[in-house]
Amino acid sequence: MKHTVMAPTVGLALLATTAIASSQDDEAVLATSGDSVEISFTTWAPSGDAVAFVDKRGKYYHVVVNGVAGPKLEHADWPVFSETGKHIAYRAREGDPGNYRWFIMHDGERQPSYSWVSEPAISHDGSMVAYWATENGGAPSGGLHASGDYFVVYGKKKGPEYSGQSISGTPPVISPDGKKVAYAAPEKLGQWHVVINKKPSRKSFSIVGRVGFSRDGKYYGYPAVVKDLKWAIVDPRGKAGPLFDGVSAPVFGKGRKYAFIARENGATFVVMGKKRYTGDYVTVGHLAVSPNGKRVAFAANRGGKDPLPGASLPLRGSFVEGGEWVVVVDGDVVGRGDQVSGVTFCPRSRHVAYAVEVGGESRVICGKKQSAHYSRVSDPVFSADGKHVGFGASRDGKLLWVRMSLDDA
User: Fold this and answer.
1) Which residues of 36-60 are buried (b: 16+ CB within 10 A; e: fewer)?
2) What's the rounded Cα separation, in Å, for the pair 356 and 70?
3) What is the mean pLDDT of residues 279-293?
4) Residue from 291, 280, 267 nearest 328 by CA
5) What is the pLDDT of residues 32-60, one digit of tens each?
6) Which end of the chain, C or N, has fewer beta carbons within 10 A?
7) Percent of the chain with pLDDT over 70
């Protein structure tokens, strides 16, 4: 999960009127941003004890972790922390236009360079990164590229090569237990399948999307076009669920219980089991399922302008212009703002926290509790006992970790 900053937006909306401001939040200063140019490239570790940002001064970039600058680089992308917060990875580049060499930096160590690499995925414990790479191809255009030899690197291993065929430029997915690396890849012209640890899935389809893993990493599902341009969630056996005009990757709760975003006849909604959570939604994002698998929460836009009306894909998120973003929990609207992100359940499935932006200021809300205002906030993270919620925040040049008590939430 990326705990990144929220970009400013234009507009004004009202926060949920039931929220009350918290005056007892604990703030810890992790770093100061100074006069860094690329400070919008900021990532907080979910553990709450580290923050990283890209500092660009003149021609060169440095990735700064807790105030300590890394090596001088010609270019650096978003840093990604492991869930433990002890490890970090990011993509970097050197060379002249037309002769770029891309590589992954993992815990300060440079990995092998290629003519192009995707952004990295990092395992929960931070011991492994996975990414697409090519020795003779270029960056995918519009998510796909049809020339060169592409393969996935995970750890120090290379997966199968895909030559002269389109590939997806999105990073692979590492299972929560760190034992599986999954990605979509072409089987032959016009046919795609999912690859798990070099082993292709039983069935192939004309289009395959991003894999979603269960919380224990033992089960997975993925979206695919299975019949007459209709999408469905496909399980590891190749069995497809109900058909829709479009579906997102599944988000899992307990065991094999999952929810997904679907689109049908121009309407966008959330499906969990046999139940549909519908509304006048232009788009739906930040979907969460409770750990017990019984509840669902998500952010949705109402009244915005859809740049792709009639498109089958259900996720368009930040591409929607205007309107109001709302937080929906079990079908009920509980909050609203110009932007909403980071919707998540507490470990006991009782509380829902989320980040909201109104009029250029951001805060975190959980039930009746809300934090102070900040210029930016990260996705919230619950403590293991569910009694506190933590999040990264930026204010007056300081990068903070805020710990908000949930008493009377």
Assistant:
1) bebbbbbbbbbbbebbbbbbbeeee
2) 32
3) 93
4) 280
5) 876 555 555 789 999 999 999 998 877 88
6) N
7) 87
State the DSSP H helix or E strand holding residue 52, giving kind and residue range, or none if neither.
Answer: strand 51-57
Residue 342 CB partners (closer than 8 Å, separation 6+): 286, 353, 354, 355, 364, 378, 379, 380, 391
The number of residues making up the chain comes to 409
Strand 80-81 versus strand 75-76 pairing type: unpaired
The pLDDT, as a whole number, for residue 20 is 40
Token representation of residue 391: 């999040």
Q: What is the model's pLDDT at position 408? A: 67
Token reading at 386: 């569910």
Residue 169 C-alpha from the chain's centroid? 15
- Contact assessment for residue 204 and residue 193, using Cβ atoms and an 8 Å cutoff: yes
Please say if the pLDDT value at position 207 is more than 60.
yes
The answer to whether residues 341 and 299 touch, using CB atoms and an 8 Å cutoff, is yes
Lookup: tokens for 118: 């995707």
Q: What is the pLDDT of residues 98-141, one digit of tens each?
A: 789 999 999 999 999 999 999 999 999 999 999 999 998 877 76
How many whole angstroms separate alpha carbon 129 and alpha carbon 396? Answer: 34
In whole angstroms, give the CA distance from residue 289 to residue 215. Answer: 11
DSSP string, 21-36: E-S--EEEEEEE-TT-
CA distance 331 to 114: 47
Distance CA(315)–CA(282), nearest Å, equals 10
Across residues 177-192, what is the average pLDDT? 90
